[in-house]
Amino acid sequence: MPQLDQIIIFPQIFWLFLVFTTFYIILTHYLLPLFVKSIKLRKQVIELNTLESAKVLESLSHNQDLLQKSLFHELQSIKNIIDNNNFLYISLEQNFFLQAIDKKIGNMLYDSLLYCDEQVLESIFLECKVLNLNFKLN
Length: 138
What we know:
InterPro entries: YMF19-like_N. With 138 residues, the protein is mostly helical. It has a domain at 2-88. Helix content is 79%, strand content 0%.
């Protein structure tokens, strides 16, 4: 067999080691640092995003705590007013004004319940005008 001939096997082994050594040097000194740099940059981006999201979460929790404290304070003041029976008597004109406000609030609640219900919104079928073949431009 000519592949296992002792005369040509040593030059083949020499060229094999030379080619693979050259290939290894090129990979480790030129291409591998590019890949490592890319991976390090990705890790840094992930760390920065994690830190930023932690800061945002912390500010949101701080704002939520402030809002809860403010809400508790306001509810406590309302409770004190109700407990002390410090209600002002409303004149007839103010009563009419309050009835108009109550009517507007009732209409708003009715509309929000009617049109902002998730089940109702999911049951409404909407078609895009671009995809609607029956739509005609004027």
